[in-house]
């Protein structure tokens, strides 16, 4: 068994089945507490698959990641600063259009994304047909259909995770283009942002947030939340972890 533990983040709108998937993957190997200094629930679990160890974090359910709320900041900071090996974006297959909004935002932040199309059983009942291959091609990342409550699709998801953490999947996230005025500003800002953040953070995303006047991101970048940085020992033990 190799000693490396891979980190997986679960992101998605509320009610898309994130916690259901989290429970299926981790069983009883999980605990909850609060994020350091926040009243937001922190749920962390562990599982082993094919002799490799994984840590999975159930991020707060949000509709966006624009720092409108503490939940959004927690989810955003984890993706940006903890740099999970894989971020699973869980979407409700019966409300794809609304859910894709969050997926696009995550794809601006990281290319290590697997889109989980959950509630496929409900979608089928409603006669909704989704061309998975086409969606995956369009988004530029793997898309795995799931019915987490019935444990359907879990094996394919685990296999996709394995291939992603081993660098066997080359993703090419869709690049959302904005109005000409915004794109011109991004072009001007990008070299400056790259100079400051280097390869450490997704420059186009940082530029967009700056254009948006996101002062909370600026603050986070200046005072990187140390408990989220890779290589820092498991911080969850600092919170009131309890087994559930
Ligand atoms: N039909 C169906 N219901 C599901 C599925 N996954 C989750 N649910 C249900 O959807 C509701 C919300 O699930 P939950 O895991 O709490 O969503 P979260 O808010 O994203 O964590 C619960 O009633 C689940 O039982 C699924 O694949 N199919
Ligand atoms: Mg939940």
Automatic annotation (TrEMBL):
Molecular function in Gene Ontology: ferrous iron transmembrane transporter activity; GTP binding
GO cellular component term, pick one: plasma membrane
PROSITE patterns named in the record: G_FEOB
All copies of domain FeoB-type G, residue ranges: 5-167
Matching Pfam families: FeoB_Cyto, FeoB_N
Protein name stated in the entry: Ferrous iron transport protein B
Origin species: Anoxybacillus flavithermus
């Amino acid at each position: 068994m190799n000693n490396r533990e891979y980190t997986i983040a679960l992101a998605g709108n509320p009610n898309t089945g994130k916690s259901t998937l989290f429970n299926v993957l981790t069983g009883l190997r999980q605990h909850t507490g609060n994020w350091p200094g926040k009243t937001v629930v922190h749920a962390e679990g562990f599982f082993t698959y094919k002799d490799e160890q994984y840590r999975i974090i159930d991020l707060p359910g949000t509709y966006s990641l624009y720092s409108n709320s503490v939940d959004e900041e927690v989810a955003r900071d984890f993706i940006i600063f903890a740099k999970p090996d894989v971020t699973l974006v869980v979407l409700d297959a019966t409300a794809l259009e609304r859910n894709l909004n969050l997926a696009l935002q995550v794809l601006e932040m990281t290319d290590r994304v697997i889109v989980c199309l959950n509630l496929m059983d409900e979608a089928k009942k409603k006669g909704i047909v989704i061309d998975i291959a086409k969606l995956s091609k369009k988004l530029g990342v793997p898309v795995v259909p799931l019915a987490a409550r019935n444990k359907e699709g879990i094996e394919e998801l685990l296999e996709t995770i394995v291939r992603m953490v081993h660098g066997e999947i080359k993703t090419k996230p869709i690049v959302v283009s904005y109005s000409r005025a915004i794109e011109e500003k991004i072009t001007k800002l990008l070299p400056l942002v790259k100079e400051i953040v280097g390869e450490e953070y997704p420059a186009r995303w940082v530029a967009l947030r700056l254009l948006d006047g996101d002062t909370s991101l600026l603050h986070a970048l200046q005072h990187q939340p140390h408990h989220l940085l890779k290589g820092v020992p498991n911080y969850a033990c600092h919170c009131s972890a309890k087994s559930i």
